[in-house]
Structure to design on (198 residues):
């Protein structure tokens, strides 16, 4: 498998980040040697590597592990794929759901690979627009389907916990390729993702 379960952390990276986190802990006015936070630099360094593991993953490779020849040529929709990312401006979380659809062109993809591709691009420093675009282009290039669509709905902690401090605003981004440029196909997709069928 080309993706790893994140149990092994790069020692050199961890050491480097730990020093930085120690400085941050002192910087906020905390005593880095206090018992409760003594191990925090290591925990935080590992958490940060986990949250950005997408940099070491290859989305195309993951997709290609489960491409099957199949003549099905109707829309395939996987909706409500939860995602957690970090905004590149403040390194604070943004999180929500991705909805993906494609219309096969002789090839279908193993369903689990769609959430995996979402994670590859979400587990980085991102903006929601680029995340949407990265997923869309990767699927379009690798599968060469008749069409592909991605919608992401997310809330941004940098807008909630700080800055404008707005608790109820969500951001929606979308991208459409091929047949989804046609209004009828796009509407069918939008209708399917807004239904309550789970
Ligand atoms: N377009 C886009 N903007 C984002 C995303 N995540 C965070 N931002 C915005 O990035 C912008 C950075 O703006 P700056 O003015 O440089 O930073 P700032 O002074 O911290 O801005 P405020 O958040 O308004 O306090 C802010 O408007 C954030 O809301 C995202 O995914 N997409
Ligand atoms: Zn931000």
């Amino acid at each position: 498998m080309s993706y790893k379960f994140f149990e092994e952390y790069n020692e050199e990276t961890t050491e480097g980040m730990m020093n930085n986190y120690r400085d941050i802990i002192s910087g906020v006015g905390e005593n880095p040697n206090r018992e409760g936070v003594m191990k925090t630099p290591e925990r935080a360094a590992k958490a940060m590597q986990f949250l950005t593991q997408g940099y070491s993953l290859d989305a195309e490779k993951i997709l290609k592990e489960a491409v099957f020849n199949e003549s099905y040529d109707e829309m395939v929709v996987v909706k409500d794929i939860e995602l957690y990312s970090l905004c590149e401006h403040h390194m604070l979380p943004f999180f929500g759901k991705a909805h993906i659809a494609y219309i096969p062109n002789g090839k279908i993809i193993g369903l689990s690979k769609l959430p995996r591709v979402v994670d590859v691009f979400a587990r980085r420093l991102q903006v929601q627009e680029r995340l949407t675009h990265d997923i869309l282009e990767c699927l379009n290039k690798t599968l060469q389907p008749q069409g592909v669509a991605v919608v992401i709905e997310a809330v941004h902690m940098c807008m909630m916990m700080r800055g404008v401090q707005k608790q109820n605003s969500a951001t929606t981004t979308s991208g459409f390729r091929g047949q989804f440029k046609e209004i009828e196909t796009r509407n069918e997709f939008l209708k399917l993702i807004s239904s309550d069928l789970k």
